[in-house]
Amino acid sequence: MTTGTSTQIQLAARPTGWPTAADFSTAVIDLPDLAAGQVRVVNDFISVDPYMRGRMNDVKSYIPPFVLGETMGGGAVGRVVESAAESVAVGSLVVHQYGWRDVVQEDAAGFRVVPEIPNVPSSAYLGVLGMTALTAYVGLLEVARFKEGDTVFVSGAAGAVGSMVGQIARLKGAARVIGSAGTDEKVALLTEKYGFDAAFNYKTGDLATQLAEAAPEGIDVYFDNVGGDHLSAALGAFKDGGRAALCGAISQMNRTDGPTGVQNMVNIVTRGLTLTGFTVGNYLAHFPAFTEQMGAWFAAGDIVFDETVVDGIENSVDAFLGMLRGENTGKMVVKTSVLESTTAAS
Amino acid sequence: MTTGTSTQIQLAARPTGWPTAADFSTAVIDLPDLAAGQVRVVNDFISVDPYMRGRMNDVKSYIPPFVLGETMGGGAVGRVVESAAESVAVGSLVVHQYGWRDVVQEDAAGFRVVPEIPNVPSSAYLGVLGMTALTAYVGLLEVARFKEGDTVFVSGAAGAVGSMVGQIARLKGAARVIGSAGTDEKVALLTEKYGFDAAFNYKTGDLATQLAEAAPEGIDVYFDNVGGDHLSAALGAFKDGGRAALCGAISQMNRTDGPTGVQNMVNIVTRGLTLTGFTVGNYLAHFPAFTEQMGAWFAAGDIVFDETVVDGIENSVDAFLGMLRGENTGKMVVKTSVLESTTAAS
User: Fold this and answer.
1) Which fold has domain A131-299?
2) Nearest Cα residue in chain B from A280
3) Transmembrane residues, as ranges (chains A, B) (predicted)?
4) Which side of chain B, N or C, has fewer Cβ within a 10 Å radius?
């Protein structure tokens, strides 16, 4: 029987505007003996994602708000160290949604066993092989109905989702892929590493002007991670019949003075545009097709990705806030490396 | 050979903000002899529509701007008084797009012969049997993908398009149909004549509050004729998976201080909404199905409609401005009754 504790980050207060450390608390839980059907998992990595900011508010949304005093939920990947379930063997690599804790002990049904790929870190199951890339994949192909020859604009393009959108668009035959990012380093990464045809820094120049220069003939598809002024600029750049997949609005999440009004809405009528919002949870049926396609690209070396790794469960809040501020390149994860300190004593 | 003249209203200047009479001029044109293949039509009615305001601006749009110094185009219905084309007989009732003139003489290919229905004014071919109702029909059924059991909100609901949307939604099995209008008289008409389940005056109360009261469980479909604050209110009222057909933004057309920013855009993401703009010109393939369905409803007495008729081609500009101000109930048309003064002298 394994003994041990689980360190967990809990939501202590609902933030107004930007979250602070005071909105969270740390709990160290003594783990009881495994019940029948349960497994114990020591996490390798936990995921911090923009959508989590929305769940901190007590408002109606597609998923319920986080509960005050409970542990922050979210994607994580770890290894089974003890099992009282026939379906999951000790040593299995698993993905789950139990979030911000170093050790998790729950019914086996809450975990999905994933294959281990040589030379690929387990964190890839939170990003390029997980929900993040699935978000990019379904958003571009299903929601925005991308077709070969389209010119595509992606905002927040150096982020975890955006960098995948650009690469998938290129692999699927986009005529031109354009990205925006918030630092010159990220802008360079977009064209030099991720294969974007053009990129610009939205903090150092006028958005609409830079977009018009990057896409002189206009855009067919816009993948929106940012909202606000970015969405207004895209509405001004669309060709007739353009389509937008609205994935998130990170620019709006911590505003306390009301959202940025989006201009140019009349272009939706005059240019016959379609704007569709989505959350990946409604597109899980595409997971098998995604896995097959992404696996093939991945094996062929057609997909590159970055991760920003923050070390230690105690730094989860800092990692989350840094991600909201755009300090990450690619997927932001927290390494919760307690495996060596957990003692298996059967 | 017929002799005669044609009185025509031309665009003299591009308006800034609200158009004025000074932006238009009147020309009286001597009509030449008919050329082979031409017909001469004396108009019964001409149509004034919101989209015409957009065409007065010199901007890229789905249809080219009106040309300065040329006659205002648009829908009209009239009778053939002389024909040099075998395909169109004298006496035929025809619909065309030659716009603001009392007599028109062009190639027969520019006219569509329509059947005459007892007790139905020819103006119906500009509204309930024409492009106006087709706009309502395709916007609701094709663009917003209405389905039985939906709760539908229509803005500008007492207008030509809006009053049709509400009735079609009801006939197609809406759970609830809600409309907004700008006078108490129109609000009463919505529930008492057009069969809306609830209606409110957006000028005398808070839009979002009134919409929430009228649709306590939220809306599935929004048909937008108004834009601006109406669209913001709808975004706040949508259920998950809601769909909007964006037909026009009459509230925004004459603004000179920039468009009203639309709030709540993040709801498009969190509620998985789809907003689709459209113009009826891209949906003409549905005209036969529309004609069959609307003809059946019409014959069964299931559709009611109003017209606001302004008399005299010389009052076309006033009619147009009145329509933009919401002075019409149902379809606004101009009666261009010169038939008795045109002399056929063959």
Assistant:
1) Rossmann fold (3.40.50)
2) B272
3) none
4) C
